[in-house]
Design goal:
Blueprint (H helix, E strand, L loop, with lengths): L7 E10 L2 E11 L4 E5 L6 H8 L7 E6 L2 E2 L5 H11 E5 L10 H12 L4 H14 L15 H13 L5 E5 L7 H16 L3 E5 L3 H5 L3 E6 L2 E7 L2 E3 L8 H9 L3 H5 L3
Parallel strand pairs: 3-8, 3-9, 6-7, 7-8
Antiparallel strand pairs: 1-2, 1-4, 4-5, 9-10, 10-11
Helix pairs in contact: 3-4, 3-5, 5-6
The structure holds adenosine-5'-triphosphate.
GO molecular function, one term: transmembrane transporter activity
Keywords: ATP-binding, Nucleotide-binding, Transport
Protein name: ABC transporter ATP-binding protein
């Protein structure tokens, strides 16, 4: 059992839209260096969970702490700063700004955080783009890059402020299998270097790379599989999909081989 302070600590997290509850008292602790995949049927609340634990959306009830900071106690300005400096986001469709060149897209979060002079930020961004194999696109527009390249740019942008935790919503969902595998390799490397990673995904190959896989049904985490062990968190809500998932999903060690 892990005893360190969680990087992410959600307790009794609820979220309702217009009176309809979509997250029902979710408890989730993610520890430093974990690679966590969140799976579940469409509409089960995976994206809503990601949005509320990151403070991108407000919660209706419960508490969330990220890197020891209670999101509910922060002003909007403090919350924005915490997101900027502690969290990195990778989205399915990149969410890059089309009126900026790709280098400026990568630099933007660091520029907003005022972390260093512009020249230093450019150097840092170019070094990241070099590592991701997209430095040659630095002065290009968003329209000039492929989906896989844009996703690498999105990862550079997520990493520019050296976040404690990277949160991804279907980061490979719009990619072909080759580009998806490359993006997953990159996310795996980032995690191996110590960054905590939480990915919402429908893709079992993504989940197979994770240390830990959560399965959501109807706004609840109903199973939590860690390195071959599975805790059925909410047995009363067992679901056909959960049973299939439990038998199909290989533990990480079986997929990657012994380390
Ligand atoms: N902004 C919103 N306003 C109203 N309802 C919303 C909003 N965002 C999500 N919902 C509802 O919350 C529920 C959960 O949606 P969510 O997008 O979190 O599910 P998901 O598991 O990520 O689905 P998918 O796998 O299809 O992306 C759905 O019923 C959805 O319609």
């Amino acid at each position: 059992m892990t005893t360190s302070t969680p990087v992410l600590d959600a307790r009794g997290l609820t979220k309702a839209f217009d009176g309809t509850t979509v997250l029902h008292g979710v408890d989730l602790q993610v520890h430093d260096g974990e690679l966590v995949a969140v799976m579940g049927p469409s509409g089960s609340g995976k994206s809503t969970l990601l949005h509320t634990i990151s403070g991108m959306d407000t919660m209706t009830g419960g508490t969330v702490s990220v890197a020891g900071q209670d999101l509910g106690s922060l002003s909007q300005k403090q919350l924005a700063r915490l997101r900027l400096t502690t969290m990195g986001f990778v989205f399915q469709h990149g969410h890059l700004l089309t009126n900026l060149c790709l280098l400026d897209n990568v630099v933007l979060p660091a520029y907003l955080a005022c972390l260093a002079p512009r020249e230093e930020l450019n150097r840092r961004a170019l070094a990241l783009m070099e590592r991701m194999g997209v430095a040659g696109l630095a002065t290009r527009d968003v329209s000039e890059a492929s989906g896989g390249q844009l996703q690498r740019i999105g990862i550079c942008r997520a990493l520019i402020n050296e976040p404690t935790i990277v949160l991804g919503d279907e980061p490979t969902g719009a990619l072909d299998s080759t580009a998806a595998a490359e993006v997953l390799d990159i996310l795996g490397e980032i995690n191996a270097e110590g960054t905590t990673v939480v990915l919402v995904t429908h893709d079992a190959t993504v989940a197979a790379r994770a240390d830990r896989v959560l399965y959501m049904v109807d706004g609840r985490i109903v199973a939590d599989r860690q390195q071959g062990r599975c805790a059925a968190v909410d047995l009363e809500r067992r679901h056909g999909g959960v049973a299939a998932w439990l038998t199909e999903l290989q533990p990480r060690s079986a997929v990657l081989g012994p380390v």
